[in-house]
Each structure stands twice: as structure tokens, then as C-alpha cells.
Amino acid sequence: MKKTTLFVLVFSVLSISLQPSAAWSRHHCCSGIALGWGLTGLFLGSALTALAYQPPPPVYPPPPPVAAHPITAYAPVVPPGMCRWERYVLDPYGRVLFDRYGYPIKEYTIGSCHYPPY
Question: What is the value of pTM for the model shown?
């Protein structure tokens, strides 16, 4: 975020000369008040731009298999002595994914009842 804020602030300061305003053309008659407001606006604008910027998700290698049984999108039949485990499917940002009807997507697997498979 610091890098993005600094980049936007430098870009804003460099673009001031391309867009002269009435406050800059009065030959500093207001004893720096307009300059103070302008620089404050530049700083706050660059900070808000940096906060609004959402970087792409990090690229991780695919996770290893979590169980001996495959992960399915439907509830599997559970054999005796085993348990069905379910979890929500997450996007790269860690948010829950929803189907087209607005319900959270779950994935299921079968594993030991004593510890979770992941």
C-alpha cells in the first residue's frame, strides 16, 4: 500500500503543471492556504486510491490432495466407520463462493472421524 500511495502521490504532483487552477494563478495571494488545501487533497486522494486498489490474488501452487477419497460437489454415500466432511469453496481472496442461486458452494469428502482431512 505504501508503494501505491507514493506512486499516486508522485503522479498527482507531476500532473499539477498540466492542469493549472485558479488558486495557482493568483500569484500566491492567499499566503499558502490554497496550496495547503491542494496538497492535503492530493495526499488524501492518493491514500484513498491506494486503499481502493485491490491487487491480484497471489499465485500459489495447487494444494496437495487432502484425503484418500476424491473431493466431490455432492454429498457422497458414507461407508460404516467413516465420516463425511464438508467445507465451503473459497476464492483466491478467501471469500466464500456462491452458486447462481445465492447459496454457498460446499465440497465434500470422506475421511476418518477422529481428525479432519485437511
Answer: 0.38
